[in-house]
Structures are given as C-alpha cells and as structure tokens.
Amino acid sequence: MPTVQTNDIATYYERRGDGPPIVFIHGALSDHTAADQQLEAFSDAYTAIAYDVRGHGKTTNPHNESYSIDRLAEDLHEFITALGLDCPVLCGVSMGGMIAQVYASRYPEQLSGLVLADTFTPAFVSRRDRIERTVLLNTLIGLVHPIGYDRAKAIMMWFGRKLEGGNTTSLRIEAFPDMETVAAVTALQAVMSFHSANIDFASITVPTLILYGEHESSVISRHVPTLAAEIPNTTVQEVPNAGHASPWDNPEFFNRAIRDFFAQTARSTR
Questions:
Q1: What is the 3-state secondary structure (H, E, C) of 33-100?
Q2: Per the CATH hierarchy, to which homologous superfamily does domain 3-268 belong?
Q3: Could you give phi then psi for residue 210, rounded to 5 degrees?
Q4: Is 41 in contact with 31 (CB distance < 8 Å)?
Q5: Fewest beta carbons less than 10 Å away: which of 25, 146, 197, 249?
Q6: Running DSSP on this structure, what letter comes out for residue 233?
Q7: What is the dihedral of CA 17, 22, 28, 29, to 10 degrees?
C-alpha cells in the first residue's frame, strides 16, 4: 500500500503514468477513487496522482482530532514535498477545491496550474449565501451525528439530488466509501469552518481553470463570479449535464476541458 509520511499521518495515494505531475484532490466524504476516471485519462501523458485526504479512505486522522482546511493544505504541501513533485498542477473538487485555493495562495511559485471544480470561496458573497451555506452544513452535521453516517447517506443523496433538480445521476450511495461517523462529522465541520480561512486570491498567479456543473446548486455556483474576478488569470467553463460531482457526471467533458486548458496554457508560455 503506497503511503508517504505527511506531518503526523501516513497518506495513501495512487500514482499512474509518467510526465508533468497533476494531483487530484477529492471532496469531503469521498476518497482517491473519486478520481479514478481522471487517473486513467491523464496517465497517458502525465504523472497522475490521487491521494486520500486526512481522515478519508486509507489515510487516518490520529485520535479523530478536528482539523481545518488550512491544516489539509499543509498536509498537501508535505505530500508534494515528500514525493518530490516539481510544480504540479492541482485539481481540487468541492472540499478539494478549498484545499487547493489555500495551497495556491500560499505556494503559487510551486505550482504550474490550478483547476478548481465545484467549490466555493471562504467569504460569504451575500446574506443569503451565509444563511444557506450555514443551514445546509448544520443540517448535514445534525443528520449524520445522531443516526450515523451509514444510515444518513441515503438521505444525504436524496437531498443532494433535490438541490440539483433531479438532473444528475452521480449522487448515489455507492459513489461514497464507507466512513466512520466521527470521521464524516469532522470532515463536514472542516468545510463548515472554511469561512474563517484567509486567502489572498491576488497571490494566485498560475493559470486557473474554474469548472462547475450546469445543474450545480446555487450554494456553489454563486461563487464562480467571485473566483473568476479575484484570481488574476482564470478561465471559466460550465460542465453540461453535470451537478456538484461534475467529474463523475460528465467525465468526458471534464477531462477534455482540462486537456484543452493545459494546451492553451502551454501555448501562452512559449
């Protein structure tokens, strides 16, 4: 089982292919398998890597300690350093996009590109945004904690499909791995605390691709204009026929958008 020591944890990862490195960062309540289609697609020309974030999959969270998105970004820094990756591209989805935002603002000179998919910014963009994000996350935490994550998953998937208007099919129980209830609650609490993260978007100088699903909920999609306006060098693309899990809903479009972005970035730096 391939692991590397990052801070106080042994981080599990999978690595395929050879070439410029691209690191895929999964969302809360998921694991490295969320990027299986991306590992397969990009291993032809890239070193494609997916890892389990602290407290997810095969990466433990010692003593079930609470953690922040900032802490997960530092774990990522240690992970990239331990593997000796030279200026990788980061592709973060949902919570992974939050981790990638923090990392890119702290270590922009150590990246060659950034992909932010289906994610939101720390700041609330409106009073409605504050209310809806807070209510949504408190509801999920309040659901998982008393009845257990395994029993809560079906309700969470039903609720997620309602938010997306029933237009997508990737939100299904089998898409989410087994997880201890305490680990699931801790992950949701980390997302809940993201609003306290301090990110200087102007410091993110690498080319950045912002992807979001056509049927993404407004809790996420309303942050796209903010990301596009505050990060200096951005490209925005809507993923058709996709919701919050756009890499699963429409992997062909998602992967092609990233490849086209890489090609465009390479041309602009010649």
A1: HHHHHHHHHHCCCCEEEEECCCCCCCCCCHHHCCCCHHHHHHHHHHHHHHHCCCCCEEEEECHHHHHH
A2: Alpha/Beta hydrolase fold, catalytic domain (3.40.50.1820)
A3: -110, 120
A4: no
A5: 146
A6: S
A7: 0
Q: Which long-range contacts (CB under 8 A, 24 or more apart) does 3-8 make?
A: 3/58, 3/59, 4/79, 4/82, 4/83, 5/78, 5/82, 6/75, 6/76, 6/78, 6/79, 6/82, 7/74, 7/75, 7/78, 8/62
121 close to 111: Cβ distance less than 8 angstroms: no
* Rounded CA separation 221/154 (Å): 24
Structure tokens at 12: 């599990």
